[in-house]
Amino acid sequence: MFDKKTLAKNIGLNLKRLRLEQNLTMQSLANLADIEKSQIVRIETGKVDAKASSLYNLALALKIDIKELFELEKFPPDKTLK
Length: 82
Known about the structure:
With 82 residues, this protein is mostly helical.
């Protein structure tokens, strides 16, 4: 089981990876998801425990299944806990 801080960091890493894979800027993703760019910054850096509704909107904007934001195996072990 992961603590909230570790989970938030991993969600942030996934969000950033998925955003960059689609060549989206933070601002363009914010516009697509109808959330503030500053919120994306906080989510990607693991500084906030994102609301389910924000994650849902981000998943819709990225055209992904929301579960992809929670996948942990995409990272080498040393990257997941930093």
